[in-house]
Amino acid sequence: MTGPAVEILDVTLRDGLQLLAAPVPLDRKLALLDAAEAAGVRRLEVGSFVSPRLMPGFADTADVLAAATARPALRPSVLVPNRRGFDLALAAGAPEVVWVVSASEGHNGANLRRTVEASLAELMPVLADARADGVHLRLAIATAFHCAFDGPTPHEAVFRILDRAAESGALREAVLADTIGHAVPDEARALFGAAAARYPGLVFGFHAHDTLGRGLANIEAAYEAGCRVFDGALAGLGGCPYAPGAAGNVSTEAVAALFEARGIATGLDAAALAGAGRIAATFGAPARVPPLPAS
After folding, report:
1. Which whole number is the average pLDDT over 71-99?
2. Which of 240, 250, 258, 268 is catalytic?
3. Using CA atoms, how far apart are residues 226 and 190, in angstroms rounded to an integer?
4. Topology of 7-280 in CATH?
5. Which residues on adjacent β-strands are paired with residue 140?
6. How far apart (Å, rounded) are the C-alpha atoms in residues 284 and 24?
7. Which of the residues 37, 168, 189, 254 could staple to 127 if both were Cys, CB 3.0 to 4.6 A apart?
């Protein structure tokens, strides 16, 4: 497999940290930021504007964001679950914001405490405001393939979200997430192929989890279907709270190695990336994840 270059977006400082048992101190986060930048990483999720009472590990997101935006080579983003988070991100000077909504009702209700329709209704004015303020909004669609509550996700559930967001004329990028890591390559190939055909003006990214060890195979399939942006977390940190005991994200190191071995440019330095991964691996163990509710 050879072909066009890819972008690898590192999510260690957001998704990689969200399940850790103890918050990572700010100085260690900034050390990881240094190491990732030295390895050639340019796009990073550096935190999330959520309630510090619920997720104390992100209480310093504004500080990490300030450090990242001071580095001209970087394109930092922050994840937000709602309008309040978006407003906080704008106030903190975020150049890119990731708005998350689930394709499945069960996961959206568990994760965001609202219906998919309520999330979409709040998203529409946010898209307009992001465009007016010159902020790049990346729409992250969780459970785009499978849901721990609702089972397999039909394409139309994903397209329902994309159709609404595309109406605004402000959406430029959407990332489809295999949130619980149950997708197979044929599913990744089919969804990305169908999405690219239906929304030719959108840039698509893939956020893969490695629960069943199929993350890299799914990434290859998504690339074959036209996807060119891929998320990863150093040392494979992270995961989904609704997939208890599962592995985390596909590692940034493995994603880079996959493409480089096939002659596809990533812009990343493998040795420096491995060093960054060693820093991430010292961040601690995940907290105990509660079991799924009875179906």
Report:
1. 97
2. 240
3. 11
4. TIM Barrel (3.20.20)
5. 100, 175
6. 8
7. 168
CA distances from 65 to 33, 45, 76, 133 (A): 10, 9, 7, 17
Contact 16, 284 (CB under 8 A): no
pLDDT in tens, 161-180: 999 999 888 999 999 999 99
pLDDT given for residue 268 in this prediction: 97
**Rounded to whole angstroms, how far apart are CA atoms 255 and 60?**
28
Long-range contacts of 211-216 (CB under 8 A, 24+ apart): 211/180, 211/181, 211/182, 211/239, 211/240, 211/243, 211/246, 211/247, 212/181, 212/182, 213/247, 214/181, 214/183, 214/184, 214/185, 215/178, 215/181, 215/249, 215/250, 215/254, 216/250, 216/254, 216/255, 216/258
Q: Which of 280, 258, 262 minimizes the C-alpha distance to 270?
A: 258
Closest CA to 46 of 32, 19, 64, 72: 64
| Mean pLDDT of the 37-46 span | 98
Tell me if 37 sits within 8 A of 73, measured CB to CB. Answer: yes
**DSSP code string of 60-116:** THHHHHHHHHTSTT-EEEEEESSHHHHHHHHHTT-SEEEEEEESSHHHHHHHHSS-H
Instruction: Give the CA diameter of the chain.
Output: 48
Query: What's the rounded mean pLDDT across residues 254-282?
Result: 96
Instruction: Give me the amino acid identity at 44.
Output: L
Cα–Cα distance, 18 to 55 (Å, whole number): 7
β-strand partners of 267:
none
| pLDDT tens digits for range 240-260 | 776 665 668 999 999 999 999
Is 227 among the residues known to form the active site? no
- The three-class DSSP label of residue 217 is helix
Q: How far apart are CA 93 and CA 228, in angstroms?
A: 27
Reply yes or no on whether the pLDDT at 154 is more than 60.
Answer: yes
Compute φ and ψ for 53, nearest 5 degrees.
-70, -40
What gap in Å lies between CA 63 and CA 58, rounded to an integer? 10
